[in-house]
Design a protein that fits this description.
heterodimer; A: alpha+beta; Immunoglobulin-like; four-stranded antiparallel β-sheet; 19 strands; B: mainly alpha; Rna Polymerase Sigma Factor, Chain: A; Arc Repressor Mutant, subunit A; 2 domains; elongated
């Protein structure tokens, strides 16, 4: 191997700099820059105060498949009888955020002001808020990462999910990464425990209304990552009521699952209105795709350019951003002969939200 | 009267922002598009900054480059402005008459390898190498967490290293160009 192989990849990338590593100095005071600055200052006054929020809406990318919405199960009566400490403002903000951008008829309306601490472990806290009409939202807050995102569980799903599991991870995950698992046991359990692949068990404390938070002991972390582990709820007689499996950790490329789909599509929305789709992006992964088409619910179509690596990115015209609000469109891939070879639905977050 | 003073102060502060950061934004744009478009990207970026002046953080560079990135992305949506890989390689050939030398061959390999990376990984590397940003600043530009950025950089560097070492091994075996051929085959 030559000496060049010892050169770091970053240094090599630096050598491909089209500007040759030189910075642009002085252009900002050139007549061209003056002209641009003048046009900007003459154009419009900056928005400030209350009206700024509208202009400054943060664009978020939301995977437009139902599974990605992480709407889980629910429970009816959750009163304020748990550990009971009020949730911090940041948690209340996250819990309230589940309705941001949702039309009124799709809002979950968690009782954010009454959000309280429901369970805790050495390095994490679980806060919950009751949902209007039943169900709940909760958020796990870890000492190192803070809030890990609110998870809401509509009442209609609770029976299908006797034990709810949420395991926040922070990339890059390794076999030594701590494992914090939390959620709620939605059956009337008298006791609850973790069972690892080697047969060892560990009791998990349940709060008065079924929430739990458990940090896997360091000695079991590697095994839990590699083999997964079970969470088991028992009745008073010691009979098993329900079992849920925390799956082995997927250490592979997180994009692999996306790439395994014939057409992977994400929608681009704003926090303010999840009924709108202002853009779509993703990739066509099926072999032989030569053309991609977006078909709106009204049947009209538009061609979406596909890059050489199969990726695509398309901003909807302003007059079309509401077209996928309540009905799905479709992305359709064709081969070189014009034969359809794959299709995938595409719709607003609000649409998938309504479908649960 | 007071409103007028505030108005003037804002304009002065914005001009300060523009004068101190326009070169960096233009450099970012020039590295990714042609000079005419680069000036448009600068104008659009700072127009957004003016409209959202209250949102611009104290460390404005990553925020501005993040805006410039989205502006560029929007302008590229038809893909017409994206210079194709072959064009870029041809440009390099034109710029370097001694393209047959090892260095230019290696640089071509790196460019091809960069092109094969996922866009976000490629851009992460370029922000660190070309713009000289820290991982935290590059994360702001790409709208991701520092941890995610670190993962992207790690993966990108590993893939690049594999490709480059493979290229060097191929060169040692006197098979110049063999890697590029296989890359084209994979693209199909």
């Amino acid at each position: 191997m030559t000496d060049r192989s010892k050169t770091t990849s970053l240094e090599l990338v630096r050598r491909t700099d089209p500007l040759g590593g030189s910075s642009i100095v002085g252009w900002s005071v050139s007549p061209e820059a003056d002209a641009i600055l003048g046009r900007i200052l003459d154009s419009v006054e900056p928005v400030s105060g209350a009206s700024r929020q509208r202009v400054g809406s943060r664009v978020v990318r939301v995977v437009a498949i139902a599974a990605a919405l992480v709407l889980a199960a629910a429970l009816g009566a959750v009163a304020g009888e748990l550990v009971g400490a009020p949730a911090p403002t940041s948690v209340k903000r996250d819990l309230a955020g589940v309705d941001q951008g949702m039309p009124a008829d799709l809002r979950l309306n968690p009782d954010v002001e009454s959000a309280v601490l429901a369970a805790s472990s050495q390095n994490a806290r679980l806060y919950y808020a009751a949902l209007d009409g039943g169900g709940y939202c909760f958020e796990i807050v870890t000492a190192t990462e803070g809030g890990r995102g609110a998870v809401c569980t509509p009442a209609a799903d609770v029976r299908a999910q006797p034990i709810e599991i949420t395991m926040p991870f922070t990339d890059p995950v390794t076999q030594r990464s701590p494992i914090e698992v939390g959620g709620r046991v939605n059956v009337a359990a008298a006791s609850f425990e973790a069972r690892f692949a080697d047969g060892l068990t560990a009791p998990i404390e349940l709060s008065a209304n079924g929430f739990y938070l458990y940090e896997v002991p360091r000695a079991q972390v590697e095994s839990a990552h590699i083999d997964g582990f079970d969470l088991i709820a028992y009745d008073a007689a010691g009979a098993s009521l329900a079992t849920a499996t925390a799956p082995p950790t997927d250490f592979s490329d997180p994009g692999a699952m996306d790439r395994a789909m014939p057409i992977f599509v994400s929608t681009i929305s704003t926090h303010e209105d999840f009924t709108k789709v202002i853009g779509i992006e993703g990739s066509v992964n099926v072999d032989g795709a030569r053309r991609l088409e977006l078909r709106y619910p009204d049947g009209s179509t538009v061609r979406i350019p596909i890059r050489s690596d199969g990726s695509n990115h398309y901003h909807l015209p302003i007059g079309r951003v509401d077209d996928l609000a309540s009905l799905p469109g479709e992305l359709i891939a064709y081969d070189s002969h014009g034969k359809e070879i794959a299709r995938a639905p595409v719709a607003s977050v609000a649409y998938w939200h309504a479908r649960g | 009267m007071k409103e007028r003073r505030v108005h003037d102060e804002r304009r002065m502060r914005f001009e300060g922002l523009f004068r101190s950061h326009a070169d960096a934004v233009r450099g970012y744009a020039l590295r990714r598009t042609d000079p005419d478009d680069a000036d448009d990207v600068v104008a659009e970026t700072f127009l957004i900054a003016w409209r959202r002046f209250d949102d611009v953080p104290a460390n404005a560079t990553p925020w501005l480059l993040g805006v410039a990135r989205r502006v560029l992305s929007n302008r590229r949506r038809s893909d017409r402005r994206v210079i194709s890989l072959s064009n870029r390689l041809a440009d390099r050939e034109r710029r370097k008459p001694d393209a047959a030398t090892d260095d230019s061959d290696l640089l071509s390999t790196i460019e091809v390898a960069l092109d094969r990376l996922p866009e976000k990984e490629r851009e992460a590397l370029r922000l660190l190498a070309w713009e000289g940003l820290s991982t935290g600043e590059a994360a702001v530009v790409l709208g991701c967490t520092r941890a995610t950025l670190a993962v992207r950089v790690h993966r990108a560097r590993r893939r690049l290293t594999d490709i480059i070492e493979g290229h060097l091994a191929g060169a040692d075996a006197s098979e110049p160009g063999s890697w590029q051929t296989s890359a084209r085959a994979e693209e199909r």
